[in-house]
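Journal club prep — side note

Before the paper discussion, L.F. wants everyone to see what a predicted structure for a comparable chain looks like in token form. Sequence:
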Amino acid sequence: MANISASLVKELRDETGAGIMDCKAALAATEGDMEAAVDWLRKKGISKAAKKAGRVAAEGLIGVAVGGDAGALVEVNSETDFVARNDQFKDFVKSAARLALSEGCDAEKLLDKSMGEASVRETLTGMIAKIGENMAVRRAVTLSVSPGVVASYVHNAASPELGKIGVLVALKSTADKAKLAALGKQLAMHVAAASPLALTAEHLSKEVVERERGIQTELVKQNSAGKPQNIIDKMLEGRMRKFYEDAVLLQQTFVIDGETRIDKVIEKASKDLGAPVEIAGFVRFQVGEGMDKISDDVAD
């Protein structure tokens, strides 16, 4: 049996809202596998979490750069938040984001690009030696659209270009760019808050859908004793419909007004702006998402 630490139980409890004993049981049953434990709790009907936000452990910043019809996001990690507040670190992240935008490159290619007199990789190595803490350019992405605009939003902003969450939203349209940018900013704020998994149901990965269907099937079985199969099928499809409403951007409820679906927001914008508007894509980065936590539980 895996050694289940108090910090692991707390992490699962924070993520799912389940009780301590239930979290311990889930972790024991899954040999300490956090993701499997979340599914275990959901199948038991104990956790209502629809999707994992990702185990956030690493510190650092998200850099955002936009230029009309294009934008870039770069995540640079550090070991401590103290370093993330360092002005040299902030300047590096800003410069990396602007460079990613101008070069249209991912993290691996970005490292070999010139940043002043040295490459990004060499500049980062110099910072590590000077500050005495490990740092890494974890990921970078660019988004572009034509015609249209790419809007951005930074949450928990250290500056207008830096924060813990960064979002890009690409709107394809021939409408007035200033009005498109204003709409795009609101949509980017929504994405930061609602954390959609995909633009449409068709964009969701097969693995994500199959995993969710498996969980919902188990939940339906627990509440459908004696019911005919057609009723069971309807219950399952209703649960999956709710999952899509939570996970798919165009089916989510706009956080700005709390009542309009995003696809209806886009329809209205098309009428108001006098030209078709389409969400061509979006990207959301949160510092450390998907990275395993390093336990510093003294009691453990």
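L.F.'s comment for the group: The beta strands are 59-66, 70-78, 114-115, 118-119, 135-144, 148-155, 162-163, 165-172, 278-286. Keep this in mind when we get to the figures.
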